[in-house]
Amino acid sequence: MKKIAIGSDHGGYQLKEVLKKYLVDLGHNVEDYGTFDEKSCDYPDFAKLVALAVAEKKSEIGILVCGSGVGVTVTANKIPGIRACLCHDTFSARQGVEDDDMNVLCLGGRVIGSELAKDLVNAFINAKFSNLERHKRRLNKVLDLDKVKYSVN
Ligand code: RB5
To answer: What's the pLDDT tens digit per position in 16-47?
Structure first.
């Protein structure tokens, strides 16, 4: 069983609630970082909390939902150590972990239905990083980018 951080904005709230119950019923330890109702709110506030929980290892993995899934993905990837991906197909949800060590799954609550979302979450939480040499080499190149502060003109 896994420690999983979950969060959404108002656009992802309903799907977040469905997935939270689904994961708790499976026996996972789910930490809900909000939002807690459908009032309009700002996705960066919740994406940041979930991303920090994963980066600081309070949770093993994270799940984020907004209307499209785009806003939470963009935000979460600003936190060093986070590899957040918007996956609406099970191949990417699984292979994103196996090859790329994705640690936050992002979903669009206004794009996909709850049954597909459960399949995506299952593919994500049951996958393991392959540890194959070529994937470790590529991952290390990604991790190196977290260590450098780039200034862009
Ligand atoms: C909120 O209306 C919407 O913009 C947000 O949920 C998300 O889709 C952003 O990417």
So the answer is: 999 999 999 999 999 999 999 999 999 999 99
Within the chain, residue ranges assigned H as helices are 13-25, 43-55, 70-76, 90-98, 114-126, 133-147
Domain ranges of the chain: 3-145
- 3-145 topology per CATH: Ribose 5-phosphate Isomerase B; Chain: A, (3.40.1400)
Say how far apart CA 132 and CA 134 lie, in whole Å. 6
Q: Which of 41, 66, 85, 106 is catalytic?
A: 66
Tens of pLDDT, residue by residue over 62-75, are: 999 999 999 999 99
Verify whether ligand 1 is closer than 6 Å to residue 46 (CB atom): no
Q: Does residue 66 have an active-site annotation?
A: yes
Give this prediction's pTM.
0.97
